[in-house]
Design a protein that fits this description.
With 327 residues, the chain is of the alpha/beta class. 34% of the residues lie in helices and 29% in strands. The strands form 3 sheets. The chain has a 6-stranded mixed β-sheet with strand order 6-7-8-3-9-10, with helices on both faces. A 4-stranded antiparallel β-sheet has the order 2-1-4-5, covered by helices on one side. A 4-stranded antiparallel β-sheet has the order 12-13-11-14.
């Protein structure tokens, strides 16, 4: 488990003072794939550098497992970093080393014997689907293949946590999907906790089970993704499954229906119209596979030819089908 408590990071110079991370508290469960979403400049990378102890916070604490990183000495921190894997946006591979040698590098630094290194490298290249590219240099690999090497290298020392800093930002959409699916498969097979730093909503939507939204150095929303998608006035829900604003759609009386408990493919709306004789006008919405489930959000106007209908009955029917209604 990763627990962040009241974390603040301030950069000061003679000219200015910048608060990059502002009183952030965060909890990430063991084995979870957790996304930290935000625009450029939101403070995501600084937060990650504090989580990995590459930066010491100005105040607050970071605890991974039983260890509070902010209280450790330099030598202790170096040992703890061996339990962390890092995947970078621009791969950071050593150009003079083959794919296999890049994967082996962190094991060499730790003094792992050659025979053990060779076996581990072979296992990891097989895991990421690059056994046939072991002898290739980075210049001979595509962007997606380079990132697969980066993932294998990050896993070399059996990390407890895998940190991904904009790991798919330099890749095309099809390759992005492949890399995200690979990270999800690694999480399922190894149980490693994955923390994704990203500005791309698709990354969170595709593989995360939990997420946080970061703005101006602060976490403004966090939690389990399926719960957030049905929460009233959830900012993350609006980003991940946008349904449009009523003012822009000319429908102030509209409501948002959220399906997050396995009902996205059921005929809930047609059942509603038959039972109560109402008309349901769909103004916008989306259905996506999120956290392994079909999830839907629709902005609708519910009306009746006579102008009146059993609103309490409609709400009860929707609640019975685990559909949340938000004004």
């Amino acid at each position: 488990m990763i627990e962040v408590t009241s974390l603040t990071k301030v950069y000061s110079s003679a000219a200015s003072t910048v608060t990059a991370v502002d009183d952030v508290s965060l909890r990430i469960d063991s084995g979870q794939i957790f996304g930290i979403l935000g625009r450029s400049g939101a403070g995501k990378t600084t937060l990650m550098r504090c989580l990995t102890a590459l930066e010491r916070p100005t105040s607050g604490t970071v605890t991974i497992g039983e260890l509070e990183l902010t209280s450790l000495s330099g030598a202790e921190l170096r040992r703890v970093r061996h339990t962390m894997g890092m995947i970078f946006q621009h791969f950071n591979l050593l150009a003079s080393r083959t794919a296999a040698a890049n994967v082996a590098f962190p094991l060499e630094v730790q003094g792992v014997p050659a025979a053990e290194r060779k076996q581990r490298v072979a296992e990891l290249l097989d895991l990421v689907g690059l056994s046939d590219r072991a002898g290739n240099y980075p210049a001979q690999l595509s962007g997606g293949q380079k990132q697969r090497v980066g993932i294998a290298r990050a896993l070399a020392a059996h990390p407890q946590v895998l940190f991904c800093d904009e790991a798919t930002s330099a890749l095309d959409p099809a390759t992005t999907e492949q890399i995200l699916d690979l990270i999800a498969e690694i999480n399922r097979r190894t149980g490693v906790t994955v923390v994704l730093i990203t500005h791309e909503s698709e990354v969170v939507r595709r593989i995360c089970s939990g997420a946080a939204l970061m703005e101006n150095g602060r976490i403004v929303e966090q939690g389990a993704l399926l719960e957030l998608l049905t929460a009233p006035r959830s900012r993350l829900a609006d980003i991940l499954l946008p349904v449009g604003e009523p003012a822009n759609l000319g429908a102030e009386s509209s409501v948002v229906l959220s399906f997050a408990q396995g009902h996205a493919q059921e005929p809930v709306i047609s059942g509603l119209t038959r039972r109560f004789g109402v008309d349901v006008s769909i103004l916008g919405g989306a259905v996506e596979l999120i956290a392994g489930r079909k999830v839907g959000r629709l902005r609708v106007v519910i009306s009746h030819p006579t102008g009146a209908f059993d609103r309490a009955g409609v709400d009860a029917y929707l609640a019975e089908h685990e559909v949340s209604v938000q004004a």
